[in-house]
Fold:
Amino acid sequence: MTTATALKTETDTMTWQTICSKADLVAFSGVAAWLDTSDGPAQVALFYLPGHDQELYAVDHHDPFSRANVIARGIVGDLKGQPVVASPIYKQHFRLEDGQCLEDESVQLRTWKVSFKGDEVCIEV
Amino acid sequence: MTSTDKQRLIIIGNGMVGHHLVEQLVERDATTRYDITVFGEERHLAYDRVHLSEYFAGRDAQSLALSTSDYYAENDIALRLDEAVTAIDRDNSEIVTPLGRYPYDQLVLATGSYPFVPPIQGGDRPNCLVYRTLDDLDAIREAGRNANTGVVVGGGLLGLEAANALKGLDLDTAVVEFAPRLMPMQVDSEGGELLREKIEALGVQALTDRATQRIEDGEASYHRMVFQDDKVLETDLIVFSAGIRPRDELARDCALEMGERGGVVIDDHCLTSDPAILAVGEVALWNDSIFGLVGPGYQMAKAAADTLTNGSERFQGADMSTKLKLLGVDVGAIGDAHGDRTPGARMYRYLDEIKQEYRKLVVSSDGKKLVGAMLVGDNSYYDTLMQYYSNGLELPDDPASLILPSSEGAPTLGPDALPDTATICSCHNVTKGAVCDTLDAGATDLGAVKAETKASTGCGGCAALLKSVVDHELEARGVEVDQSICEHFAYTRQELYSIVQVEGIKTFSELLEKHGQGLGCDICKPAVASILASCFNEPITDAAHVPLQDTNDTFMANMQKNGTYSVVPRVPGGEITPDKLIVLGEVAKKYQLYTKITGGQRVDLFGAQLHDLPDIWQALIDAGFETGHAYGKATRTVKSCVGNTWCRYGVQDSVGMSQQIEHRYKGLRSPHKLKFAVSGCTRECAEAQSKDVGVIATEHGWNLYVCGNGGMRPRHAELFATDLDDETLFKYIDRFLMFYIRTADRLQRTSVWRENLEGGLDYLKEVIIEDSLGIAEELEQQMQTVIDTYECEWANALSDPEKLKRFRSFVNDERPDPDIIMTSERGQLRPA
Structure:
């Protein structure tokens, strides 16, 4: 009973925030955007892989290794079938699915749920 | 719970050697017969002390660590860090710590050493520190915060390492050495003098022949050091690094047999006078010697592990040859480097005071064997000399050729010439025979050989030699070495180039669909982008190409460490009008850019934010500038001297020629960056012999040099053709560059490409000058295509609003990135 209530409350506070339009994205690459979260504004890197099972990913734009906000400017690809982005500064790979750094298991980027609503790109916060 | 049939093994000390012993025991399955407990006095798990000074250059404790607590847990080894052993009770077979008593059946002392602090009056003042542990480094860093100057007492190997650490803290650093020269153990007086000059050129003062008498309050600084001749030196911080002494107090207190000057006496099995106790590393005294290097320590660990598991390996002394890079200066010492331990030894010496290199060979009295060698300034000679030394190979007829500059054609020892007994890796004592055994047992690449033998996982000094042995042996076994560029394409760069060219494939997606798999990655995408650009020269900002580019190419600027970019417009031949210079200044002022003159005779504007790049470039293009491709693996600059238009020595118009070359090849993309230079006479002020393509004027035309390099591994360009007229010069450069672009590996400079080119310079001349492959015309045509399709990439992007959308810092807001914070230094802005 308690659990159900808690779940319900959580669902209620989640909302979809419109970030930009499909035309703002760059196919097979990334762009950066601002996101308003309950913890304040966050910089998000959006990656667009048209034609793939999952077309959109949203991860932190902040690179924990260089401490610069640059992740959206990295090269997107896959390693052993997992979509990744390579940091443009020191080239570490981050899994787009969950933000996990493949070179250092203690480092993980935040990720957000992101999807198209029509032509709009929306993130769940 | 201790199972009753297992013996209890305690290891005191978790330094490099102590940890190596654990690894050796695990390898021998010793955990099936021992319950192993390791005690470490420090709170850190074993770390790499050899590279300690990198702690101030950005490496943290974690990256220096040699292992993880998981490793210990997985192997059922109890690790008790931050728990110093205070006594050994041999009567009850127990050790004592502040937390309790622990019984042992077998005990290993791996307590290492401590830094020796000479008995100097005032040596115990605050800010007088030592250099040995991570905690020491933290203390040095803390003291360095309020210091401007630092002095290291001790000019040996560790002293210079410590000086490097102080330099890393931006302190004005000096080294004070008691002996008449630096590194007295490794080098002689000539080598020491050269070393001093080199180190002083790096900004570290070197004072030799100085005995510190006392340390007292300074006037301008915190301390004043007073020397034997009453000379003084003031400094804020003092680090003692004047040698090591064994940490042998536990052994002394329990009455094990000790050396006269300390150290626990061990035999070949690493056993002390008590057969239940072993000792390894710097605490151990073997044959009256303490071995203060990690290699011998590892060998002792191996012997000790064998002793504990009934193996047969013994410690039989170790070679103290070393190859070091101290403060960026190469120093090497092999065997009897001073020649004072070999009766009748004779020497060859080579001293170059201009390039500051010194090399010495010590040979046996009959001149047939190498017994020692000394190197200052260039360690590239080390590996070959070490092979002659450690394998007792017979010297060539002219031994001096081994230390003469390599352009004189020093015979290098190929992997084939090495006997199976040749030691490849001295840290882990791996022979060529052992490498071959792992290949015979099924290893198919370098990684597998390293994992199996541990070769090249210690100091790493043998990496190049190991690779050449593995490659050679694999080839000899008919194994095809996997040269695939990455997991997405089972082809080399050269094969991908041919596929693109032959099939006329113009996009990455088409290439991937026909010949690859997956999405691609940060290896294959830029490599293919470069190939496509070399072949078809379409704008890299086109939608099909933009996701392939590294960030620098994507935004046509060079990303700096804080995520801002630097901008370098082309200044052909380094010639620029005052009006254009003013525009550069105005743009830099308007966008608050840090400006610096580059080595390629251009101006670099730093600190531009992504969204400002289009406006900056619009202003530059309006003033007549073009993009400089400083961001690309592409033609960079053509450096020149003023030539005969001004210079009284010049014999040709070097600026005019450099501009012709720069305009001809600008925009050309290649496996790596391309640098050019043109000098107007043989005085060579443009340094053309350090470039990929160098041109030097003669009375009759131009001499062409190729495949030079500055940077990390300098290489002199080689004279390729002489007295060429303009037309022939361009023809040869066209062919040369296109042949390189076709056949090089990704990110391979022309220098390395040339060194790996079978047939060498003669072959290259045959292909380019004599057209032995019949491809000269094709190469020229291909170059002509690139020349004809040149277009300034920035002008192209500025004319297309879709492309400019890419330059928004954020797609949904015009706020700049608030995390880019600048501070002022020397009148300009730099990242805070």
Summary: The helical segments of chain A are 2-13.
